[in-house]
Design brief:
- With 225 residues, this protein is an alpha/beta fold.
- The chain has 2 domains: 21-149, P-loop containing nucleotide triphosphate hydrolases (Rossmann fold); 154-222, Helicase, Ruva Protein, domain 3, CATH 1.10.8.
- Helices cover 45% and strands 11% of the residues.
- It has 8 helices and 5 strands, in the order H-E-H-E-E-H-E-H-E-H-H-H-H.
- The chain has helices at residues 25-35, 54-67, 101-116, 136-144, 155-168, 177-184, 189-206, 212-222, and strands at 43-47, 72-76, 90-94, 120-125, 146-149.
- The protein has a 5-stranded parallel β-sheet, with helices on both faces.
- Strand 3, helix 3 (101-116) and strand 4 form a beta-alpha-beta unit.
- Helix 1 packs parallel to helix 2 (54-67), helix 5 packs across helix 7 (189-206) and helix 6 (177-184) packs parallel to helix 8 (212-222).
Length: 225
């Protein structure tokens, strides 16, 4: 039998249009304004818990700017920064708190280059700038622009999003499917939606409706049982 959920990858393409805002409507509006060239502030910092949607927004922001003709890039921070960031007009920089001392100096230089070159920076971290364990000059600069907390969706909001996604694709979820998926699968929304898309394909292949037994079967297959 086909181990369906093992084949689920991160092919869910993050976009501002498929970001479920919840309590983050102002953040989403600001990013849209920035992409449209209507937001005068060029430096934005997002903070929040894991799975709150920060990475989704950063990837979508960089991709949208690329489609609008800007030279933009998304980068996940490690101890250091990738060397090619200085060649871009728009930089979306995820998890800046992971940078070591040299990486923080590089971020300081990148910030100043973008500022002088009229570039844009969207950065993220786990907490507000003032709480970041980083160089004071870097913390100050990250706090100079707009700062938003990104709030994770509640379970009820995720369930509503799953039902809305199913409806947009022309199928219905059986009773309890969304709740079961939320309890037994990865809890970030892109992973949940990707699982739902895979279940839709499996449902069509097997000519069975998407119900809890079908979902349980695929989760069982995924675990190798």
């Amino acid at each position: 039998m086909k181990q369906l959920l093992l084949e689920i990858t991160s092919d869910f393409a993050p976009a501002l249009d498929n970001f479920v805002a919840g309590r983050n409507g102002e953040v989403l509006h600001t990013l849209r304004e920035s992409i449209a060239g209507k937001q005068p502030e060029r430096f934005i910092y997002l903070w929040g818990a894991p799975n709150s949607g920060k990475s989704h927004l950063l990837r979508a922001f960089a991709d949208a700017h690329s489609r609008h003709g800007a030279k933009s890039v998304y980068a996940q921070c490690g101890a250091s920064l990738p060397n090619n960031l200085y060649d871009h007009d728009v930089v979306a920089l995820d998890d800046v708190d992971r940078l070591d001392a040299e990486g923080q100096i590089a971020l300081f230089d990148l910030y100043n280059r973008l500022r002088e070159g009229r570039g844009r920076l969207l950065a993220s971290g786990p907490c507000a700038p003032a709480q970041l364990p980083m160089r004071p000059d870097v913390v100050t600069r990250l706090g100079w622009g707009l700062v938003y907390q990104v709030h994770e969706l509640s379970d009820d909001e995720k369930i509503q999003a799953l039902h809305a996604h199913a409806a947009s694709r022309g199928f219905r979820l059986g009773t309890g499917v969304a709740e079961y998926l939320l309890r037994h699968w990865r809890r970030d929304l892109p992973s949940l939606l990707a699982a739902l898309d895979a279940l839709d394909r499996y449902s069509l292949e097997t000519k069975r409706p998407i119900t809890v037994p079908l979902l349980r079967e695929t989760l069982h297959l995924e675990s190798g049982g």
